[in-house]
Amino acid sequence: MLNTPLNTYPQEDILIDAIGDDHVGTAYDTPLREDAFKLDDATKVEMIEKHFKSIMEIMGLDLTDDSLKGTPKRVAKMYIKEIFSGLNPANKPEVKLFDNKYQYNQMLVEKNITLFSNCEHHFVPIIGKAHVAYISSGKVIGLSKLNRIVQYYSQRPQVQERLNIQIANELKKVLNTEDVAVVIEADHLCVSSRGIRDTGSSTVTSEYGGKFLDYETRNEFLKYIA
Ligand SMILES: [Zn+2]
């Protein structure tokens, strides 16, 4: 009777808490199973609705209450269609490139891109700003596509370091250049609303490629976003 499921693996529990609170990520690619998209979205919404309802019931909430009864469905739709829609490659923004007609060969910076993501360790929000820059290799991209690429990778369970790298890698790929910079500054609600409960700190990550590894180019970018 001592080995109840909750205290069978105390070591494992400690490790689970530590990985979450230390926010240790394990891979550049989002860890997805091979069969991740075998189920269609409608089926996923239905299944999540059922499971989320169970979670609420386990917590003792009365699902016959008018305010609560639609919550499982709302959460399920929000997960699949909104805040985790970036898991599905089908939702990846299509990017059209344009010729760099003005021969603008300086750095292009788009700063303060609104960023909403969710921490993969706690499933609570990460809220921040992304600043991106590139130097054209002959083609340019519509400005709003920069926002969409940030949004797409944000709409996954994330760790900030991985999110930063995924955005930078995608920009390098679509723009066909290594000359890309991405800086993210964000507040993690798992740090402010629980755990250490620090509301004053934020996390800054960065990724620089190509010419941005050069001290002066990087500083020019940092000056623009300061
Ligand atoms: Zn977290």
TrEMBL record:
The keyword Metal-binding applies. GO terms for molecular function: GTP binding; GTP cyclohydrolase I activity; zinc ion binding. Keywords: GTP-binding, Hydrolase, Metal-binding, Nucleotide-binding, One-carbon metabolism, Zinc. It catalyses: GTP + H2O = 7,8-dihydroneopterin 3'-triphosphate + formate + H(+). The keyword Electron transport does not apply. It comes from the Bacteria. GO terms for cellular component: cytoplasm. One of its GO terms (biological process) is tetrahydrofolate biosynthetic process. Pathway: Cofactor biosynthesis; 7,8-dihydroneopterin triphosphate biosynthesis; 7,8-dihydroneopterin triphosphate from GTP: step 1/1. Zn(2+) binds at C119, H122, C190. It is an enzyme of class 3 (hydrolase). Residues 48-225 form the GTP cyclohydrolase I domain. Pfam families: GTP_cyclohydroI. Its EC number is 3.5.4.16. InterPro entries: GTP-CH-I_C/QueF, GTP-CH-I_N, GTP_CycHdrlase_I, GTP_CycHdrlase_I_CS, GTP_CycHdrlase_I_dom. HAMAP family: FolE (MF_00223). Homopolymer. Belongs to the GTP cyclohydrolase I family. This is GTP cyclohydrolase 1. It comes from Pedobacter psychrophilus. The lineage of its organism: Bacteria, Pseudomonadati, Bacteroidota, Sphingobacteriia, Sphingobacteriales.
